[in-house]
Automatic annotation (TrEMBL):
Protein's name according to its UniProt entry: Uncharacterized protein
Lineage start: Bacteria, Pseudomonadati, Bacteroidota, Sphingobacteriia, Sphingobacteriales
Membrane-crossing residue ranges in chain numbering: 20-42
Domain of life from the UniProt record: Bacteria
Alphabetically ordered keywords of this record: Membrane, Transmembrane, Transmembrane helix
């Protein structure tokens, strides 16, 4: 037997392991790009909804509530201040009821009942401290109801995100 310097090369047809790994890396990177796009898109939608709800609901309502709080904090709370508070309360009630046109699932009856109760408290012979306590109850309930609505109803976009992640 002669030893020859000729070596045989083995030609393998088919897919090698490195090809499979490369294709898996391409597929995983494509999936991560799609996932990143959807998460950025949905987070931007959530941010826009939060900003819109803040501008439409919280800022004007806090302006009314701050004005009423300022009137209650005045040292000589008299009939002029009572009338100012009740007028501001009427404006606040009108605004809260008008929010139903933009956000139809808001319970405007609850807000009307609360503001009517506080309006009655203003004209009663209570001390300013009692009026402030009732005012803080009103403020807490109004803001908590709006926040609850914002989280439950308006941010239903989280359901979409959940759907995209776990189809």
């Amino acid at each position: 037997m002669e030893s020859s310097s000729f070596q045989y090369e083995k030609v393998v047809s088919g897919i090698s392991t490195s090809d499979i790994v490369a294709w898996l890396a391409i597929i995983i990177s494509a999936i991560s790009i799609v996932f990143t796009y959807y998460s950025l898109f949905l987070s931007k939608q959530i941010e826009v909804k939060i900003l819109m709800f803040n501008k439409v609901c919280f800022e004007p309502i806090e302006t009314y509530l701050d004005y009423i709080d300022g009137k209650l904090n005045e040292s000589n709370f008299g009939s002029n201040q009572q009338n100012d508070v009740v007028n501001s309360l009427t404006d606040l009630t009108t605004y809260l009821v008008s929010l139903v046109r933009i956000y139809p699932k808001i319970d405007s009856q609850k807000f009307e009942t609360l503001t009517d109760g506080f309006s009655d408290c203003i004209y009663e012979q209570n001390t300013v401290a009692d009026k402030k306590i009732e005012f803080f109850k009103l403020k807490q309930v109004v803001l908590s109801e709006l926040l609850k609505y914002a989280i439950i109803e308006e941010l239903s976009i989280f359901k979409k995100l959940w759907f995209y992640l776990f189809k």
